[in-house]
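Q: Could you fold this chain for me?
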Amino acid sequence: MHFKPLLLSLLGVSPLGMISIAQAAAGNCQSLSDGSTPAIGDCCSGQKSGTASVDGHVIEYSCRNFKRSASINIKGPYAEGSAQACAKRCVFRRCTMAVYKDNNECRYTNDANPEMEYDDTVLAMENKGKDDMTDEVRKALAKCKEECEKDKEKLKKECQEQKTEMGDKCLREKEELRRQCTENEERQNKQCEDQKSDMRNKCQEEKNELRRQCAEDAKEESKACEDRVKVIQEQLTQCRDKNLEDTRWVSNPGLLGTEVKARAVAFSPKNERMAVGELSPQRVVVWDMKTRQPLAGWETGAGAGMPMSVALSPDGTKVLCGTYEGAVKMWDVTTSSEQIFQEPKGRVSRVNRVAFSPDGRQVAAGLADGKVLIWDVSTNTQITTQGHSGAVQALEFSPTSGKLVSGSKDKTIRFWDPRTGRKDNEISHPGGGLNAIAFSPDGKSLASGSDDSSVRVWNAETLAQRRLLPAHTGPINDLAFSADGRQLASVSDDGTLRIWSLADDYVLSSHQQRKAEAVAFSPDGKYLASVVALEGLLLWTRS
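A: Sure. Below is the predicted structure, expressed as structure tokens.
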């Protein structure tokens, strides 16, 4: 049939917009079955009409024109990529008919029984309503249901017969078992009573003999024990007196020949070098404690702020510093070359602690915002951990396993794999927030100091608590083990520096000073360094 120009223009279809229609199988309309096919050439060739299902609705399609009276309300055009998409819009809008053109235009109407005549270039789609089940399907379902009910009744009858048979058999077997059990029980009870009677008699005879021997031995042991106690008490008194003499420390203010206003201090684990984070000027200085002369020094840099924590590499050739404004820097003591791990830029949190790994290949920093950061020294690559929910106040690598341990104000001690940043373990601290942790030189013990003024010593492998020392009357600020692992130094807000014997948990030495913020033992045991508020660095030597 021919196009009517006026009717085509009402639908937005130009008479000049004739499309070339390819030959396709009769009744096939790929644009309706495949939403990614825009062309309708196969829909408007061959049979030129058919039925498709779109969103559960029956769509009859054919190539036609849409002739309407003035009362027909056509909506569109809408841009749709396929006839399927146009039909979906029709179904969603509950239309009665839609038309689709090859140029992706879709129109539809909700009017009932619009006048139509066929056209070869526009795909018309009538919405026939939802799909319904056929009579054949209903009959098949009814027959299936009838057969199913018969099978169910048959199975039910067979099952009931089997249950009755099994029940009778079970009752017979139960009665036989009860009889056998009763006979066995009576026989065993008789044997048991006979054995109990024999054992009671024998036990009474043995108890009487033991009482007699015990009374005789107790008299002899009591006297020997009293003698041993006296000897041990005398030896203990002598040992304590000797230890107190050997571990008496005295402050030596003039040891370095100058007054040092400091915030942080650390000794090299293997040589006679000491790193000091100074306040005025804000710099890091490394001292040779053999000559008691400074080897090198570096200012923290513009905007970095004061040094909050310092650490020396295991060989003493590098010094690491974390600052108040969030900088993390390292210097080579020999060449003075600088390596920057973190700049004090943007929203960087205060660095409270820094640490070197036992092999010197990694460095770590604990921040006030709860982050625990790890860097590879050779590549400057950063590894980020889960961190804490509170400020990280303490940080140290195990000298044996290499694990990184952090202590936080969130009352947890966490163990990290420094290679991956993954958390391996955790201790929920029973005291207040953590301010200090320290490993013993052999890596077997971990000491922690908290806001509740106590010091706890943990088994570093099992995480069991070994000791609880009521160390101070104020929060603990720092801890340090002596090189031989036999002594532990603690400093507190209460203004005391105390040195503990870990052999029997008593105070070897106690010194009154202002609030102390840091403490460290030299590896050779000659020096003890403490940082005291308003007084700066104090060096202690044995008297």
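A (continued): The helical segments are 5-10, 30-33, 83-92, 135-246.
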